[in-house]
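Structure (tokenized):
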């Protein structure tokens, strides 16, 4: 019998799909966008679990409604950030994810946590990074008199909102905008670009090398790809 005939590899259609674990703290709208793209077959992967640090997070029920396994790791049950992150890592790793997605997960992660998922953890941030790292991005863009604002998907590194950018969507700032109206337009774009970035990663087109994001093995610009180029 030839080596090819003794190969125990499964046919591609029988191989396990890439596994995604999504972390949320609130409504889970980006989680829903990704999970629904998976359900429709737009993303060839499996959402293995949705995990929240808040028992009351509305996104938990939305995940259950989609027959996705859910877990709660309540940060209030731990004395410090390090203990919480260790427990969260243990919970995540039970699902052996290929990708960890932060979808409105409102926790600053310890270096040990970030290093554990180096190159396989994505976050979405409501600004055109590197502008406006941190909180209150919509009001900060308005206060600065910016003409445009937007949202960025990026790899997670030890620097808060500082990992290499993957994809950005730009929204104009109109006269009369306030933080709420601007946030609503940004949210619409979030639900478009996050599934795109996840699809790129699980299909092998997106990776991280050093402090750069690579798309089809080509280093992306510092801003990432614009939505129009996807």
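Design, position by position:
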């Amino acid at each position: 019998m030839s080596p090819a005939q003794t190969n125990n590899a499964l046919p591609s259609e029988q191989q396990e799909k890439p596994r995604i674990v999504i972390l949320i703290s609130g409504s889970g709208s980006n989680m829903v966008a990704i999970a629904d793209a998976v359900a429709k077959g737009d993303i060839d992967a499996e959402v293995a679990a949705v995990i929240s640090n808040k028992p009351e997070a509305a996104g938990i029920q939305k995940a259950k409604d989609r027959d996705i396994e859910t877990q709660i790791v309540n940060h209030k049950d731990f004395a410090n950030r390090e203990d919480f992150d260790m427990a969260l890592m243990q919970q995540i790793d039970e699902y052996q994810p290929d990708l960890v997605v932060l979808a409105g997960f409102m926790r600053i992660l310890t270096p040990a946590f970030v290093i554990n998922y180096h190159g396989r953890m994505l976050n979405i941030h409501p600004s055109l990074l590197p502008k406006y790292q941190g909180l209150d991005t919509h009001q900060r863009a308005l206060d600065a008199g910016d003409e445009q604002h937007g949202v960025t998907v990026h790899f997670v590194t030890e620097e808060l909102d500082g990992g290499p950018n993957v994809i950005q969507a730009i929204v104009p700032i109109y006269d009369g905008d306030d933080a709420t109206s601007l946030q609503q337009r940004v949210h619409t774009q979030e639900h478009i670009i996050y599934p795109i970035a996840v699809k790129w990663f699980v299909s092998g087109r997106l990776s991280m090398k050093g402090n750069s994001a690579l798309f089809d093995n080509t280093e992306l610009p510092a801003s990432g790809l614009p939505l129009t180029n996807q």
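Reviewer-requested clarification: Residues 37 and 134 are 28 Å apart (CA to CA). The first helix runs from residue 3 to 6.
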